[in-house]
Amino acid sequence: MSQLARESKVKDLLAKQKFNEKEISEMTDPQIEYYHWLYFEDSIYDYM
Q1: Could you tell me which residues come within 8 angstroms of residue 16 by beta carbon, excluding any fewer than 6 positions away?
Q2: Rg for the chain, CA atoms, rounded
Q3: Closest CA to 40 of 2, 8, 28
Q4: Longest pairwise C-alpha distance within the chain
Q5: What pLDDT, in 10s, does the model give residues 2-47?
Q6: Cβ-based neighbour number of residue 27 at 10 Å
Q7: Could you tell me the pLDDT band of residue 1, with boundaries at 50, 70 and 90?
Q8: What pLDDT does residue 28 have?
Q9: How many CB atoms sit inside 10 A of residue 10's CB?
Q10: CA-wise closest residue to 36 among 3, 19, 26, 22
Q11: Are 17 and 11 in contact (CB under 8 A)?
């Protein structure tokens, strides 16, 4: 993941107030991608 993409996802997660900066700074890229997907990505099942 590019640094720009990581910063964008970190910003979104911080705004959601699910994690603090210390927790996020210790996460790997796949962890950040997972939590961003978990909290921000829509699924077709969300609309059923």
Answers
A1: 39, 40
A2: 11
A3: 8
A4: 36
A5: 999 999 999 999 998 878 899 999 999 999 999 988 888 776 666 6
A6: 16
A7: confident
A8: 94
A9: 18
A10: 19
A11: no
Per-residue HEC secondary structure of 1-48 comes to CCHHHHHHHHHHHHHHCCCCHHHHHCCCHHHHHHHHHHHHCCCHHHHC
Query: How far is it, in rounded angstroms, from Cα 14 to Cα 30?
Result: 17
CA 13 to chain centre: 5
Tokens 């959601």 — which residue?
16
In the block, residue with structure tokens 């609309």: 47
The angle formed by the CA atoms of residues 15, 2 and 38, to the nearest 5 degrees, is 45
pTM of the model: 0.72
